[in-house]
Amino acid sequence: MLRLFNHYFPSSAVYQVLIDVLVLFCAILLAAFYVGGEVAATMSSVVPSALVFAVVMMALSSALGIYGSHRDASFRDLLARIVLTVLFSVPVAWGVFRMLPWGGERYQALDATVIMILGGVLFVRGVSRRSGAASMWRRRVLVIGTGREAASVEYSLTHPHHPGLSIVGFLPVPGSDESLVHPSRVLPSGRSLLETARALEADEIIVAVRERRGGTLPLSELLDCKLSGIKVLDLSCFFERVRGQVRLDSLRASWLIYGEGFRQGTLRTMIKRVFDVAAALVLLALTAPIMLLAVIAIGIEDGFPVLYRQERVGQGGRVFKVIKFRSMWRDAEKDGKPRWASANDNRVTRVGRIMRKTRIDELPQLFNVLMGSMSMVGPRPERPFFVDQLTNEIPFYAVRHSLKPGVTGWAQVRYQYGASVDDAVQKLQYDLYYVKNHTLFLDMMVLAETVRVVVTGEGAQ
């Protein structure tokens, strides 16, 4: 895993993006030289813009999920993802062509050529991700422990499949009898940890055990491994890297205080506010026709009002009123009792189901962003009734209120409907990751993933 801008990316995906940028860049140069015929003119007029084009296209493709793990996906799902990426990329590519200095009329034939090259690169990359061609960058992982924590590590690397890491075996801890992994994957414990790691060519060791539950960790042997160049990780670091979560079951107040991240500051707040206002204004301009259609559809199905305002808890625990398109029947909570929203909620209208699936019902929250009570990206705001309940039942729940709530968020693109306390725990782990690592780059990444989630119909809350 590589850490860029406080966020972790699979090494294999990063290398593949760089390779594809290079392939596309070189293909554009060759095509331009073939069309133009003059090397000097081709180099001076095309090289800078070709590099910009290649970087923009691969960044867009990455945001749309073409570099994600597709090994377990069906061919139909894979084909749909590739087609979606091409459909988004081609119009953007055409627009970029219009803005870049390609050298006049002699390069008119280059447009279609490069578009076809782009489509070919995306298709080959999508197919290669499904076939597991990224194995050349895969790191070999040795897991210390065989209990519940070790099983959760194995599950995290296989659901979904993680192309960057491969478990070579599980080493039992002396004094612990618990074993929840398959016996065939448990390693004999006759050799030292360093000898075992070297024999298995392990690149990393994950300590998936808690000392308080019995068993003795070989601390001196772990230090020998680290000094020998083998990376050693605990459970907290593992889940943060691989799942984009800060796990509650391994979280301590001292880690929040003394660990990296969870930084706030005036400059960071100012940059985020400028980005929020600019993004909200652009989205309001682009989605105005969609919002008008939503007003008409809601009015026809269930009458007015089409908007509703509801109290939510924002930054610092302050209560504000969120604005949304009404997606439920007007008497949805006529008894006055708050209820969790669910994926198949019978209180939702037919128009409301479409709006929730496409997140159109969230668009009026752009006005909340302009008013300053919300951000474009952040933890989703909850109702005071549920906040009181969750704060009492879930440790560190109030940490999510250190930032402004968002129209979308890291938890929303990683985890879908939250209809129970257990779901709230899962979403909080993603929210804590965002609070710990939030940057402008991560905000832009979340917005790009939100587009992908909406367009692919993966659903949202």
Automatic annotation (TrEMBL):
Record's keyword terms, sorted: Membrane, Transferase, Transmembrane, Transmembrane helix
Domain of life: Bacteria
Sequence intervals crossing the membrane: 12-34, 46-66, 78-97, 109-128, 277-300
Protein's cellular compartments: Membrane
Bacterial sugar transferase domain boundaries: 272-455
Topology of the protein relative to the lipid bilayer: Multi-pass membrane protein
Keyword Coiled coil attributed: no
InterPro entries given in the database record: Bact_transf (IPR003362), EPS_sugar_tfrase (IPR017475), Sugar_tfrase_EpsB_2 (IPR017464)
Gene3D superfamilies: NAD(P)-binding Rossmann-like Domain
Broad class of the protein's primary localization: membrane
PANTHER family the record matches: COLANIC BIOSYNTHESIS UDP-GLUCOSE LIPID CARRIER TRANSFERASE (PTHR30576), UNDECAPRENYL-PHOSPHATE N-ACETYLGALACTOSAMINYL 1-PHOSPHATE TRANSFERASE-RELATED (PTHR30576:SF0)
Family to which this protein belongs: Belongs to the bacterial sugar transferase family.
Protein name: TIGR03013 family XrtA/PEP-CTERM system glycosyltransferase
